[in-house]
Amino acid sequence: MIVDVHAHFTYKDYDNNIDDIIKLMTKNGVKKVISNGLSYEDNINVLNLSKKYKIINAAFGLYPTEAGTISNSDLKKVINQIKSNKDNIVAIGEVGLDYHWTKTEEKKKRQKEVLSEIINLANELNKPLIVHSRKAESDVLEIMKSAKVPVILHCFSGNAELIDRAIDYGYYFSIPVILLKSKGFKRLVKKANLSNILTETDSPFLSIDGKTNNSSNIQKTIDKIAEIRDMDPNSVAKKIFSNYNELFDN
User: The dihedral of CA 215, 13, 40, 64: what is its sign?
Assistant: First the structure.
């Protein structure tokens, strides 16, 4: 009963073994994975993947660093791509702001402009948003106020005050496997309502063992959430599965 709301199974890491990875995840109880697109081209690959494997759902997005330099014409292409595939995707993501890789104010401003347009699009299409916020958590919380759809904060690393704000806004948190060694994510799991918690891997990234990540590892996240909240792991898994089904059209 495992769900992964944020992965990237179109990465070259899986070029030679995606069939085996899908079989492994299915064997280990993974029910649904949302593979998030990062660009116009990647969105096409994500869609093809979702058509090939029942376990994969597609989300179309535009990575923040891409958004920081995108032209108006290319942005329009992505927006039209999302519109024309609205029935083939369950969410819009990965989108957001990134101030870790983006340092110039001009590119940060462009990221905000693009994100605002994408929020308007999500409102129009009634699609949840899967949002990146690295080193930009405060600005993300501010700009997402205009969203009228569910907001899923991917790998949110804000401080205690920002976590409280996000909870007050009713946002969802997707918790990565690095919860096992992260004080920040443990704090988040303690504070957030279980109704607003989801699980993710960010595969192939954020592994805790140095290997290429995959959704099977989420069982470790569920076990740790259960430990932190003093709950039965099966109850945690069922609730997160229910959260997923309430958010996304399957």
Answer: positive
